[in-house]
Inverse folding.
């Protein structure tokens, strides 16, 4: 549907997209008279995914859309009355029906930013029951979006900027919503396009695709071709495309020294048929029978026939076999034919590889000096098989102006209390040094000033930093019932991802044993945190 802002809004994303305990807590808060208490919640995560040392933050736009369209309908209220105990006072349902996000303040890091564990991606401030009620929806909207964007960014780093990346995963995604989310956020993470037509419509993502093996298999001979004529691109003159293709088949076969009878006639017929349908964007899937002795020969013949008719073919796709070897063999074939027929354009044919690709395979192909110009990636991208969840959490950090803390024997689960500001400190080389959390009322770190930065937990881990640049990461995105910042388009967010990755040192992005990025706290925040910690931690007794 189209929301109040005029943007596409998923019908599933509505106020009932919450866990039951948020409604039961809201009732308990209301019954105790705590509905006007002010709470601050931070949405953070504890570990970077995929054994890496960075994460891409996405999903913020959906959270703002959720607030813009938040209102419990009569249908929702009726459902609450049905599922909650009969002892619930009717006035509570009146309270729920009156809720609007006018008293909610949402601060956030810009969508598409590179982020790290312990950073508050979102900070929600507002009436306790309502702020609590946003937990599940916000976690749902941030967790998978950020995971897919991060996965896509890692594929972009692995493939390098020289190779295009296409998302082909809708058929393997976790349902329609999973497919749309994956298409949207893989594009933001650095992919160049998707096969998902609906994602193209809704999000203006470039869409791409070729044909399946089944298309090739439906043809057994040239006799099945009902259309044999093509109009010349420039003159409009009708040409016998089949005859031209057969002429080039003979030439290509002689040039490569491969007997023409070894190539599959049905495959050639399929390529001719597809080229007649899409002469300006012809890509052939060449591995239905045999890449080298059939698929390549047939593609080359159709490609030169298209050229004779004034069109420029695009290339081939390989979906099975030894992709490194076959891509290099295809490139050598293109070069050989380009030289033989003095057709330099043919040496530039694209080679698209698919076949259940993952990050490990891409790095292996790199080591083998593949000749692939584009990867089409599906299952491992959209399902995030390497790590299926990011693990964001939504924790209370302040109540009625008083900082509070969640303790745990697992030190990674201890929260950083209070309302905070986040600063990214940069060195003179342009790379980010660390992120610094400060109390909300502390002065901002000054450029070219020596700043003491503490590890949040360990006293001995501290260092001085003299930044050449300081950037405040959070901004207020929602306040007084309205969005305060215009939402950027996907291209802008995508550019932010790529720029953020450039600001990380190469050793922090490497595939094996990347260097961890530091998230620190100021001395003042460190002291406050540990004071609250000691106040709330029980003193053990040894017997």
């Amino acid at each position: 549907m189209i929301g109040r802002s005029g943007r596409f809004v998923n019908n599933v994303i509505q106020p009932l997209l919450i866990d039951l305990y948020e409604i039961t807590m809201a009732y308990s808060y209301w019954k105790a008279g705590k509905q006007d208490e002010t709470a601050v919640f931070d949405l953070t995560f504890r570990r970077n995914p995929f054994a890496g040392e960075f994460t891409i933050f996405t999903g913020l736009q959906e959270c703002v859309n959720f607030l813009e369209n938040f209102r419990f309908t009569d249908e929702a209220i009726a459902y609450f009355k049905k599922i909650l105990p009969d002892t619930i006072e009717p006035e509570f349902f009146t309270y729920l029906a009156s809720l609007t996000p006018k008293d909610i303040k949402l601060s956030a890091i810009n969508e598409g930013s590179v982020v790290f564990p312990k950073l508050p991606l979102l900070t929600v401030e507002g009436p306790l029951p309502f702020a609590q009620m946003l937990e599940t929806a916000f976690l749902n909207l941030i967790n998978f979006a950020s995971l897919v964007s991060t996965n896509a960014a890692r594929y972009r780093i692995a493939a390098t900027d020289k190779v295009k990346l296409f998302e082909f995963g809708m058929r393997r995604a976790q349902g329609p919503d999973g497919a749309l989310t994956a298409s949207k956020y893989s594009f933001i993470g650095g992919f160049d396009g998707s096969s998902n037509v609906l994602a193209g419509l809704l999000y203006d993502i470039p869409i791409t695709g070729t044909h399946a093996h089944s298309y090739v298999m439906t043809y057994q001979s040239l006799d099945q071709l009902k259309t044999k004529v093509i109009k010349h691109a420039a003159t409009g003159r009708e040409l016998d495309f089949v005859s031209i293709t057969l002429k080039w088949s003979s030439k290509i076969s002689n040039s490569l020294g491969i007997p023409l009878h070894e190539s599959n006639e049905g495959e050639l017929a399929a390529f001719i048929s597809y080229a007649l349908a899409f002469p300006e964007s012809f890509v052939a899937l060449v591995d239905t029978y045999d890449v080298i002795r059939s698929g390549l020969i047939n593609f080359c013949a159709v490609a030169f026939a298209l050229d004779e008719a004034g069109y420029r073919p695009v290339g081939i796709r390989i979906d099975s076999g030894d992709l490194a070897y076959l891509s290099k063999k295809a490139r050598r074939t293109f070069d050989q034919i380009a030289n033989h027929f003095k057709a330099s354009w043919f040496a530039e044919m694209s080679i698209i590889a698919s076949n259940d690709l993952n990050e490990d395979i891409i790095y292996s192909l790199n080591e083998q000096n593949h000749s692939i110009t584009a990867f089409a990636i599906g299952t491992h991208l959209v399902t995030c098989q390497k790590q299926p969840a990011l693990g964001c959490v939504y924790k209370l950090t302040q109540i009625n102006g008083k900082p509070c803390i969640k303790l745990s024997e697992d030190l990674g689960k201890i929260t950083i209390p209070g309302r905070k500001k986040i600063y990214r400190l940069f060195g003179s080389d342009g790379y980010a040094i660390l992120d610094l959390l400060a109390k909300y009322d502390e002065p901002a770190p000054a450029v070219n000033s020596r700043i003491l930065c503490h590890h949040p937990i360990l006293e001995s881990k501290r260092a001085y930093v003299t930044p050449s640049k300081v950037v405040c990461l959070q901004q207020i995105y929602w306040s007084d019932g309205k969005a305060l910042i215009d939402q950027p388009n996907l291209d802008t967010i995508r550019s932010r991802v790529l720029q953020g990755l450039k600001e990380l040192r190469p050793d922090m992005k490497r595939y094996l044993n990347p260097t961890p990025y530091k998230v620190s706290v100021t001395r003042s925040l460190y002291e406050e945190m540990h004071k609250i910690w000691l106040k709330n931690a029980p003193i053990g007794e040894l017997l």
